[in-house]
Amino acid sequence: MREIIFDTETTGLDNRADRIIEIGGIELFNHFPTGNVIHIFINPGDQKVHPDALAVHGITDEFLKDKKPFAEVAEEILAFFGDAKWIAHNATFDMGFINAELARIGLPPILPERVVDTLSMARRKHPMGPNSLDALCRRYGIDNSHRTKHGALLDSELLAEVYIEMIGGRQAAFGLSTATSGQNGRGDMAEEDDVVIASVLERPRPLAPRLSQSEAQAHEALVAKLGEKGIWAKYGGPAAQ
Fold first, then answer.
1. Could you tell me the end-to-end alpha-carbon distance of the chain, in angstroms, rounded to an integer?
2. Is 150 a catalytic residue?
3. Which of 39, 50, 126, 150 is catalytic?
4. 202: which residues sit within 8 A by CB, 6+ positions away?
């Protein structure tokens, strides 16, 4: 299962007039980061960065003037997302801008069923809040000390860690695991009917026992004292013979 954790930075808050100036995304496969990312700065045309927005992300008009407009990077963005879920914190905001940009160049919107809002997830999981990205990082012990300003890729990286914790931590991906010798070309993970399947590698030689001979003899002596009704008698040793 592919998911893309993403974030945008914009010239302001109104998606009818303001524009996306940065998008960053992290690919997850079965809830694990693959290392594939997207990070693009975008020229907003005639729309200038609002001072309030500049104070949040620090991206200037001067920095953006030589970047490509959205129309020239839309294909790259859509190809990266493919058929994956779009996952964002306060996704209503980000998707409002994404779909407004797509509409401007005559492309269809991203449908709501493909979108996951981690802010809504957090509000259900932690109804007393707070549920900002910074607050969730503190709640889950995720280091965000390097986040002095908002940035689409940095925020996506932090949100990916938060999202994994909210769905049960890194072990969540193995919740329905079963052993198999099959491979799927992505390492040792495969997916069948939404069930994660993890292949198990066997050692060519078993590890040497860590129990010393004297410890083994002491254990056998203890088991012998338990008598034939002792539970250890069922597993071999002097009491079972």
1. 52
2. yes
3. 150
4. none
Both structure tokens of 6: 């993403």
Nearest alpha-carbon partner for 115 in 97, 133, 137, 92 = 92
Per-residue model confidence as pLDDT tens digits over 21-70: 999 999 999 999 999 999 999 999 999 999 999 999 999 999 999 999 99
Residue 167, phi-psi category: left (phi > 0), alpha (psi -120 to 50), beta (remainder): alpha
- What string of DSSP letters covers 139-175? HTT---TT-SS--HHHHHHHHHHHHHHHTT-GGGGGT
- Which string of b and e fits 127-147 if b means at least 16 CB within 10 Å? eeeebebeebbebeebebeee
Burial of 125 (0-12, 13-18, 19+ CB in 10 A): middle
Element (H, E) at 197: strand 195-199
Number of residues in the chain: 241
Distance CA 170, CA 164 (A): 6
Within 8 A by CB and 6+ apart from 190, the residues are: 180, 182, 183, 184, 196, 197, 199
